[in-house]
Amino acid sequence: MNKLDIKDYKSGCFEMISLEDIARGLSNICRFGGQRKQFYSVAHHSMLVAVLAPNELRLYALLHDASEAYLGDVVKPLKHILGNSYAILELKSMAAIANNFKLNLSGFDKIKEYDMQALLLEDVMLKGGSMQTSTYHGKSYYFGPSSPENAHWNYSTMLNDAIKWNETQSQQ
């Protein structure tokens, strides 16, 4: 497993980006600052966004919060207080992630509507509504609270499938 050193954060140099670090990190981070009765990971959220997005945006959807694997999930009110200093660090991190996965950084902007749809669905699910099971590339995924291990396996599988799909599309 690659680890970013504190100097990487200070310089904004994120050269140690890895798929495994992103999958493990997002699977172990609870959404909403952990203020839910059940564990619901950033990885689960990203998978839900990916299912809502069209195929050509699924890799962007799965990686739209990938900087949180390195920076942590900072709740919106705190992000606003931190202002530009956090925004710059997040942007540098996302630029490195985009570069690592050969994506255009501006492509992440196209995910916002699906991210908001996921937030609305999560609000219903996590307040006792029905949990979702969805099929993605012929595999069934559960979108609801579950263990970090389950989130890691599902997210890694979905991320690898999205990478393969993107590679196939770029060869056509």
Category by helix and strand content: mainly alpha
Cα Rg: 15 Å
Succession of helices and strands:
HHHHHHHHEEH
Mean pLDDT: 82
Low-confidence stretches: none
Q: Sheet with the most strands? A: 2 strands, antiparallel
* Number of beta-strand segments: 2
Name the overall outline. Answer: globular
Bin the strand percentage. Answer: 5-15%
Strand order of the largest sheet: 1-2
SS summary, helix count: 9
Which percent range fits the helix content? 55-70%
How far apart are the first and last residues' alpha carbons, in Å? 33 Å
Question: How do the helices and strands line up, and which of them pair or pack?
Answer:
Layout: H1 6-11, H2 19-28, H3 42-52, H4 58-63, H5 68-71, H6 76-82, H7 84-100, H8 112-126, E1 132-136, E2 139-143, H9 148-170
Antiparallel strand pairs: 1-2
